[in-house]
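Q: Hi! First time doing this. I have a protein sequence and I read that you can turn it into a structure. Is that right? Here it is:
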Amino acid sequence: MKFKSLLFFSFWMLFLVISCNKDDITFDAPSQELRFSRDTVFCDTVYHQVRSETYAVKVYNNEDKDVMIPRISLEKGAASLYKINVDGKTGHDFQNVPLRKNDSLYIFVEIAPQATGPEAIAEDRILFTTGAGQQHVTLFSVVQDAEFFIKTPSNPNIIASDATWSNNKAKIIYGNLTVEPGVNLNIQAGTKVYFHKNSGMKVSGGATLNINGTADEQVIIRGDRNDSYYDTIPRNWNSIKMEAASVLNMNHTRLFGGTRGLDMKEVNATIKNSFIHTFQEYGIYAVKSTVNAENLVMNNCGESCIGIYLGGNHTYKHATIANYSATMNDRIRMGIFATNEWKNDNGQIEYAALQNLNILNCIVYSDRENSINLEQVGMNQFNYLIQNSLIKYSNLSGAGFSFDNNPTNSVVSSIKNQDPRFMNYFAAKMNLRVKADSPAKNIGDALVANSVPTDVVNVPRTTNPTAGAYQ
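A: Yes, that's right. Below is the predicted 3D structure, encoded as structure tokens:
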């Protein structure tokens, strides 16, 4: 009984001590500057009336005492495009914010702006007013006006008549957007097309997609997350799927960040001066199609930069096709894969002739043993020509052709297994220009070069042409 009484008495004494200590907590004005996890918050590019993701700033109290921050506020006050959340409350001005000694607190930042033009800068500052002076964290974002294409049960998201997209507004696509048969969709220079997660475009048979970028104003096609983190990861959107008898004309375009880039079946495609990179499967997936490409730069695709199935007719002039997909180590990561078979949607194997695969004045290289794999199946026609190009392949791993012994003259005046010496092939930089001592320098065929007289950045190449997209 005495033990129980003693235990009861001890519990209440401990409770009183804790209560007194809690009541005795005092917060002083800071005598030192606060410390922040970052001095600038670069928000993702945001669109008209679309809320951004939430960003966090951590505020540290390095003093050995509890402090009361007199004021935390947005410099532009209620007129700011930003909102902040401090200690669980959202607003633009906060008074007397406590912060325990050697502790920290989170401030959460987001923006949901009204666009005032095609593109503008939204900037503000979080001000911290203390006895030690005024400090700030800068908030920065690019704001774009946008036009939305949203698929819903009541809106099939269809372009049913000829349309032109200009660069006055970004195009944001939610769900699949369909270009109806016989319709022409023209995308003008400088236009930005953004796909939401699991979204894509379908170009129906008989429709034409014209992507008309220029050297000064590329067309950008990517996922709708514009933070630089997303520049180097795939699967942010699905693909541009082009059905049989559709037509693609693409010039000065940067296409990246999805599952497949151009997903084509029995399509006629012309691709010039373009960059296609960072796709989970293929940058170009072509089934029984005709593809003519020049000044094409490709990199970082999980299965292959170019996948050619069921033959077709293909010519690549002055293309740099690399594959250094470090983020997709478990993938095959080819440069070019070509075969004359294909498994259709019913699981049946189809066969057709590879009428031509011309690889002219190109670089095809990867961090795998083979950058090119050609698989002829059965007795169907399988014609290919590798001319004045630098490629990587291994005789020991079945590239499907012989570099040194080709009585059909299918490999001409080309170099194998020599490092092209790219400036920087890493995903974040991806500068696939070659250095001055590159073995690709001056090996191009002059007649081919004269048919593509300037390189992908408009440098003349009619004399001493270098293999690849860059002179």
